[in-house]
Design goal:
This protein has 120 residues and is of the alpha/beta class. It contains five helices and five strands, in the order E-H-E-H-E-H-E-H-E-H. Pfam families: Response_reg (PF00072). InterPro entries: CheY-like_superfamily, Sig_transdc_resp-reg_receiver, ST_Response_Regulator.
Length: 120
């Protein structure tokens, strides 16, 4: 399975990658985007099976990326790993079609809980 990790922090992308491995999700093809616009473009070119996105990113936020993907008919599985979490953000994410919302700091156990049904 191909997974796109979108976060403007290279360190956070590495932490997400490491946590996926700690949760037992080795062997997936991981690609990275540095902002929401690049994530949008990479969904078109790389055709990932899953997008794990930060909320706040330059160029285009994560939820803007998700909304634009859905507006273009793309139904890639998409969710958020973010440090901010308000009820409004969760409602926006759900309304846009997000499948999960993980709040930083996170654990391998939380990744296992969220990603086991998706990644098997």
């Amino acid at each position: 399975m191909k997974i796109l990790i979108a976060d403007d922090s290279r360190v956070m992308r590495q932490i997400v990658t490491r946590t996926l491995r700690q949760a037992g999700f080795d062997g997936h093809d991981l690609v990275e985007a540095q902002d929401g616009k690049q994530a949008f473009d990479m969904v078109q070119s790389e055709k990932p099976d899953l997008v794990i996105s930060d909320w706040n990113m330059p160029e285009m936020t994560g939820v803007e990326c998700l909304r634009q993907l859905r507006a273009n008919g793309n139904n890639v599985r998409f969710g958020f790993v973010t440090s901010e979490c308000t009820p409004e953000m969760m409602q926006q994410a759900e309304a846009a079609g997000a499948e999960f919302f993980i709040i930083k700091p996170f654990t391998a156990e939380r990744f296992d809980e969220v990603f086991s049904p998706i990644l098997g």
